[in-house]
Amino acid sequence: MLSAILVRTLISRDCTVTAALYHPHIKKLWLRLLLWLLRKTPGKVTDMETECSDGSFVATSNAASAAAMENPPLIVTEYLPATTSPAEVHARHVARVARAPQGRQASRRA
Fold first, then answer.
1. What are phi and psi of 77, to 5 degrees?
2. What confidence score (pLDDT) does residue 79 get?
3. Domain residue limits, the chain
4. How far is 82 from 84, CA to CA, in rounded Å?
5. Which among 22, 12, 20, 21 is positioned nearest to 109, based on CA atoms?
């Protein structure tokens, strides 16, 4: 149903935030047209993730439709509207990580 997707992965200078940016494309033309008519086409997605020192994760995404899936309790995710820019997703994510309770500080990625 989906064609191959290029996922750009990035990491912050301090190695605490990992980002993935991608744009899903529907392979089947009829389905793409139907979704376009229904205004349900998949948009550009920005996902940010930080692993905390206790093994939990803070995640922030503009893939609002993914909120229908349930994450395990160790992954605390906030879904922003699909129109949220990558810079806004990053700013929101950094603010959420900064507010993490004691004992849940960001861990550096190796």
1. -115, 140
2. 94
3. 8-98
4. 6
5. 12
Compute the half-sphere exposure of residue 82: CA atoms within 13 Å on the CB side of its CA.
14
Q: What number of residues does the chain have?
A: 110
Residue 43: burial class (beta carbons within 10 Å; 0-12, 13-18, 19+): middle
Query: In this predicted model, what pLDDT tens digit does every residue of 51-71 receive, in sequence order?
Result: 988 889 999 999 887 777 888
CA separation for the pair 77, 61 (Å, rounded): 8
Q: How far is CA 93 from CA 64, 98, 99, in A?
A: 15, 9, 10
Q: Determine the Cα–Cα distance for residues 18 and 59; give it in Å rounded to an integer.
A: 9
Rounded CA gap, 60 and 30, in Å?
32
Which residue matches tokens 């879904």? 79
Average pLDDT, the chain: 84
Query: What is d(CA 49, CA 61) in angstroms, rounded to the nearest whole number?
Result: 9
